[in-house]
Amino acid sequence: MRFTFHAAVALLVLPATQILAQITSSDKLIAPPPRNPALHQRIHPAENSSGALQWLWEYTHPAPLGEAANLRVDARFQAFLQSAFHQPQAMWGPPGSQEPLAAIIPLFLTQYGQVTAADNRYIAMDGCVPNFCAASGLLWIDLGLAHPLAVFAAVNWDPNAHTTQQPQANYNLWLFTSHQISPDALPFALTEAIAHWNIHLAASHRMVPHIQHALLVEPDGQLFPLNPDRIGANVIAPQPETSTSQPSPTPPSGR
Question: Which DSSP helix (H) or strand (E) runs through 126?
Answer without folding.
Answer: strand 122-129
